[in-house]
Amino acid sequence: MNKKVLDSIGCSQCSCGSNERHDNKSEKLCLVRLIIGAATFIAGIIFGRLDVWSYIPVFFFVASYLILGADVVWRAIRNIFRGKVFDENFLIAVATIGAFIIGEYAEAVAVMLFYGVGKFFEERAVGKSKKSIAKLMDIRPDFAWIKKDGQLDRVDPKTINIDDVIIVKAGERVPLDGIILDGQALLDTAALTGESVPRNACSGDAILSGCVNTNGLLTIQVTKPYSQSTVARIIDLVENAASKKAPTEKFITKFARYYTPVVVILATLIAVVPSLLGGDWSQWMHRGLIFLVISCPCALVISIPLGFFGGIGGAARRGILFKGGNYLQALNNLEIAVFDKTGTLTKGVFEVTKVEPAKDFTRETLLEAAAKAEAFSNHPIAASILREYGSGVDKTALSNYKEIAGHGISINDGNEQITAGNIKLMKQMNIPADEIDTLGTKVYVGINNKYAGCIIISDEIKKDSRETIAALKSLGIKKTVMLSGDNHPTAEAVGDDLGIDEVHADLLPEQKVEKLEQLSKEKHNKGKLAFIGDGINDAPVLAMADIGVAMGGLGSDAAIEAADIVLMTDEPSKLTEAVKIARFTNKIVWQNIVFALGVKGLFMILGAFGVASMWEAVFADVGVTVLAVFNAMRVMRLPYKTR
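and the corresponding structure tokens:
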């Protein structure tokens, strides 16, 4: 996994001084050093209570301090020369060295010991989070079996080209996207979609890289190079998500930049001003040092980015890919949810339900003409017409293929010109056609500028679409809207069935953009508008919306690239999960902010007035940090029902 991603969580260096990902060996070394340092510290306390020379306990305290804190002091010195003066290493080093100067040896070592123990547990918590993300991204295939000249060669998936044929054996991960040429198997898609139930796949089915072949032997024709495969895109999305920080993260980073120098100045004033006015120098110096230890901002600097990264990782395990923490936080303020119809709320699996030839044309002639017009299209409507026609189409005889955006298709078959599309296309081509008032998508066909008839195609609503709209309303989403290029009666029927607040139909791609602009004006100050779509025509709208959500399973590459959130399955209910994950993450983040600032503020006041000792200071710093980190890790587990 990309080291930059792991480091972006914001974890600080632990007591062992390593800034690398912790393995079992480094954790053991840290633990051994803590044990030796603690034993030496206890020896100093014991000898301090015995009637021995005073330098003996001092020797043990100094030795313990060097074992536990030499690396902290060294990092503080090194960071000063790098221009990073006011960090936690500086605060702890100054506080403990100051304690030594005023003769508080035991307290100085105790601060370093408990600081080390706290950082050890903190690093273990952060390490678990990193491992969880790394495990999530451990879907990168190590090899692929390529079939050439009857032989199988084990090669790097990056070297395989489109149309190459690969073999995936039982128990292996599918290395590249493709079409199954031969074989049948159950596919474990949990790493991609979060679904625990295996999917059945057989010859002719599309297959995505990253899923696991649990049984059977599959022969697959590659349709995308590795760089454009599903697994590569998921890894890229999660890796780059950390670089897009949420507003809260940016605020905390900026806050810490100003907060730390301020508390150092306040600690100095607490130590110096009363002493100059006649107070006990040692006492006020002690209070200033306590104030300094308490003031460390580690709890905020570490736990806030960890919370957002945990939310991104937890969502990804459920088949929801956020492209950044900024989109995760934006989803908290979702006010208007705008849906595309076909392929988003409906299955996009069309079936021809009625064929109405015009006078002088037969059913077979109408279907044949429509099939020729749709022969080069991969749209679900085209697929349904080709299935209904049944016979193959000789594409070599076709020429002058032209798509008319938002209207339909024009093509030549020898000397015969065929046009197929909506009623607007018929009017544009001056083909007299009566508009049919029947629910469903209607494809009007013209042959040589003569009306040949109409084919009615129906789409089925997805089983969780109604549940999704109802759930969004229960979550407080103020308005649900559906934009469709379909005719008004069909779109209105779907909208009424689902309980959608507002339906706009007969829209061209550019009209969808205009409608979205109008809807954006209805938002309140911090309200966000999300558009959920899957088709290539949705890409401009996805890019324009505050939050673009692409349905990834059947979605086009253009839609996924333009979107801010990708739902790896074609279930609209994943949007509800995404909203709940965003709200849970935001809740945890603000819990940490309020908890850390509240506890630290209280103890800083107590420390300034001499009520809090150095022991309470250690709890206020390290204890709060560890508790905040463990609270942030709850996001990784997502301990709630999303449905």
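(Above: one complete record from the training split.) The first strand starts at residue 144 and ends at 148.
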